[in-house]
Structures are given as C-alpha cells and as structure tokens.
Amino acid sequence: MALPDSFKTLRLDSVGRTFGATQALDNFSLEIKRGEFIAILGPSGCGKSTALNCISGLLPATSGSIWLDDKRIDTLAVEDRGFGMVFQHYALFPHMTVRANIGFGLKMRGASKEAREKRVDEAVRTVRLESQAHKLPSQLSGGQQQRVAIARAIAIDPPLVLMDEPLSNLDTKLRLEMRQEIRRIHQSLGSVTIYVTHDQDEALSLADRIVVLRDGMIRQVGTPEELYERPATLDVAEVMGFRNRLAGQNAQMVGHTDVRFSSCGVALQGVAMVPSLLGSIVAAIRPDDLVPVAKGQGLAATVEAIEYRGHDYFGLARAGDGTELFFRSTTPLTTGLSISLGTEPSKILVYPGEMP
Ligand code: ADP
Ligand code: MG
After folding, report:
1. Of 54, 88, 108, 174, which sits 20 to 30 A from 165 (CA to CA)?
2. For the chain, what is the domain count?
3. How far is the CA of 132 from the centre of ligand 2 (A)?
C-alpha cells in the first residue's frame, strides 16, 4: 500500500475534528503544492496540533477528506501514510546511539541493513551531525538532539514532513540557527513541510505560505509579506503582532486607501483595511511602531511599566480612557511619566466595527 513517491498536490478538503462538544478543527481546506513550506500559525489552543495530527493520522478526522493527488489518504493508518514527524519533545531512545535512533524507523519498515546504513549516512549528513553520530542523546545539546529527531523523520524519505513547534524547547540563539537549518533541509528534500508554530517570527522567516488559524478555523492564507502587511481582519492582525488596538470614532475616508478618525481624544490617520469605512472603527498598531513623540503630537498616556531588552526598551502606557498602549523607546522612561505616543499613518491599520 505504498503512497506515490512523488506527488504534485496535497489537498485537505473540509477537514474537521471534534472532541465531544469542542470543535477543535472546523472545515479546514487547503491545497499545498510539492516543494512548499507551509506554516500553520495561531495562538495556543486554536487547533494547530489537531490539524497536523489529522494529516499524519495520529488523530482520525471526524469529517472531510485528505488527498495526495487522486489518492485518498485520511483513511490510511499512520504507518501507511509514513510521514516524517518532529515534535517539541524530541523523544529519542536514550539507550540508542544517534545512528540507531535515526535508523529505527527504517528497521521497523524492514529495510535491509545495507539500505539502512546508506540512508542513515545521508540523513546524518543532511542535518550535519557526522561528528556526533556515535554518541548517545544525553551527550548532545538540545539543538543537536532536535537535529537527530529531524534526521529520524527524514530518513524514511517521507512524502510530507510535519513539525509541531519543534523549536520551542530551545534557547533563542539555537532557535535562530535551527530555523536556517530547517529551511535548508526542506529545500534539500524538495517535498512538503508543514510547520506548526505560535511564533509569528518563525512563520514569517520559514514559510512560503502562512495559514492563520483561530478557534479551529482558517482566518487567512497568504505569503509572509501579505500577512505581515495586510492582515485581513483584526483577529489576524492580532496574531501577526498588532498588539495595540484603539477604538476610534467618526471615521471618514480620505481618498481610496486612507482614513481619518478620532481616538483617545486626538485626530489620527491610518490605512483602511476595507474599501470604505465610516463611523466606528478599531485601529491596530504594532508595539515596535509606536514610539514617544513630541508632547501634544500623539496619544497622551502615562507610563506604567518599562523593560530593557538590549537594543531598546519595551513599555506599557495607559491612555486617559484606559486603553493599554504597548510601545518601544530608545530611552528608559520612569513609570508615572506623562508622554505622547505616535507613529506614521502607514503603520496604523484600520478595521470596521467596535472594540471586541
Ligand atoms: P494548539 O495545538 O493550537 O495549541 P490543539 O489542536 O492542541 O491546539 O487543541 C485545539 C482544541 O482542541 C483545544 O480546545 C483543546 O483543548 C482541544 N483538544 C485537543 N486535543 C484534545 C483531546 N485529546 N481531548 C479533548 N480536547 C482536545
Ligand atoms: Mg499544539
């Protein structure tokens, strides 16, 4: 019951999964082309792992179907799908060497010793662990152990590689290095990688396309640039790092794309995210784009907290009406200080409706 060695398209057709009354995944439809790196991005509990597990077969879908070209695969058992899987917890066999760990899946599949050795050599080279191959997992760093887990996943030549937050246990420096590695490995395999994460930076840096998931539903699919610059809705904007939300009134279009409105007692201009806006709106701004400006120029607020983060400071201020404003500052500001915060109109995305 072998799957096609090479396929053109992986198609998910209205895949759903319920747990009792919880709809963990709802109507998930997506077409993925061979060679694509897809990130599924969303907050904790939004259904990312459920989506991945339905694809791998670890979890049966309760509705919909999954196809590799014209072959239906959601009816196959996990082992018959044979996808490569990498998880947050690498779960290596502690008493087995790196090589034995990597070759384990091949052994289970009944590959000959010779074929196994050859494939393990290749996988070890792909993840650049040649000098560590004889060691036990406990003798390796976290990053190296995760490389072993990746090598184990790709050793079986899987048509799909599925990764569930594989870097969340690593420190920042290793995470950055491993991102490059994962991208390189994906390119060298030429198959499909589906990568689940709650970290927008990871999704932006790795993926050809990002799928934003919230409450089990796809909210937007697009390239990193599309999602970073034009989140379709306020929900997606929040996932993409637009942490500041301002309630605005008296919105009026200025030309085709710009909109004027008032918020926290000041007049502001932003980019309209729907063709026309009028009346009540919600404006979204990234903390990194909101900075102290000359007194009286922007949103008046009082500094509540500020923390050093190396290259600059990250702060929280509160406007007169109680709105929380997260901002960036190049200087340390004392708490209790009255400041004005502002940004360019192009950094303010404006959506219709009232504050959620
Ligand atoms: P994520 O990976 O995005 O954090 P999950 O896919 O793990 O989210 O979970 C999505 C939703 O489904 C959550 O509400 C979660 O509580 C629920 N859920 C996941 N797995 C189970 C399970 N085995 N039994 C019951 N509920 C589950
Ligand atoms: Mg998860």
Report:
1. 108
2. 2
3. 30
